[in-house]
Amino acid sequence: MKLILLGPPGAGKGTQATMLSDRFKIPQISTGDMLRLAVSEQTEMGVKAKEYMDAGGLVPDQVVVGIVRDRLQLPDCDTGFILDGFPRTVPQADALSQSLAELDKNLDAVVSLDVDTEALVERLTGRRSCPNCGKGYHISFDPPEQKNICDVCSTKLVQRNDDQEQTIRNRMAVYHQQTAPLEKYYQDLGLLKSVDGMADISVVQEQIVKALQVD
């Protein structure tokens, strides 16, 4: 099973990818993990990526695609893989398609987690965490017994910078501008499967499995 997961920040791609990885016994592969691995192992593409990263620049598409290609040739990808967070743009998707064809690892499906923007903003801005013990809460769906105080260690809860409304809306805007066009790209290829990403985690998982028509 060779899959790509699409969806805006906070849609639950990482959670669903982990569950699918366990279910199908195939690796979950994220761009960040691949970059770190390539850099630490000092592969040819990893060395190139480090040069850009050390200079504070973005790693060019050709280098990222090269790192993805190297990763997909490792033995644990022989029976499949789940790409989480890549590709992000249509040019990356074009380059990925070419590499997959050359490796004889063509995609089986691209799963898009459809979400309501305002509901997603509410879901993310409501998250709080304890800086001391790490326990997470949600002010609407899973609030602490005492407002803004951790049930476990009585520490004042905090909101991560990534969960502030303006940050989330900025990330969503970037996603819709750069990554959302991938839905049409993969729909035109007959690969796109859309599921309701706002449902409960287990329900989303079963929707994905049903969309893939596997047991």
Could you outline the blueprint of secondary structure elements for this entry?
Elements: E1 2-6, H1 13-24, E2 28-30, H2 31-40, H3 44-54, H4 61-72, E3 81-84, H5 90-103, E4 109-114, H6 117-125, E5 127-129, E6 136-138, H7 165-178, H8 181-188, E7 192-196, H9 201-212
Parallel strand pairs: 1-3, 1-4, 2-3, 4-7
Antiparallel strand pairs: 5-6
Radius of gyration: 19 Å
The CATH superfamily of the domain at 2-115 and 179-212 bears the name P-loop containing nucleotide triphosphate hydrolases
Proportion of strand residues: 5-15%
The outline comes out as globular
Number of helices: 9
Largest sheet: 5 strands, parallel
State the distance separating the first and last CA atoms. Answer: 12 Å
Please bin the fraction of helical residues. 40-55%
Mean pLDDT: 91
The CATH topology of the domain at 2-115 and 179-212 is given as Rossmann fold
Describe the structure.
With 215 residues, the protein is an alpha/beta fold. The protein has a domain at 2-115 and 179-212: 3-Layer(aba) Sandwich (Rossmann fold). It contains nine helices and seven strands. The strands form two sheets. A five-stranded parallel beta sheet has the order 2-3-1-4-7, with helices on both faces. The chain is globular and about 55 Å long. The model has no long low-confidence stretch (mean pLDDT 91).
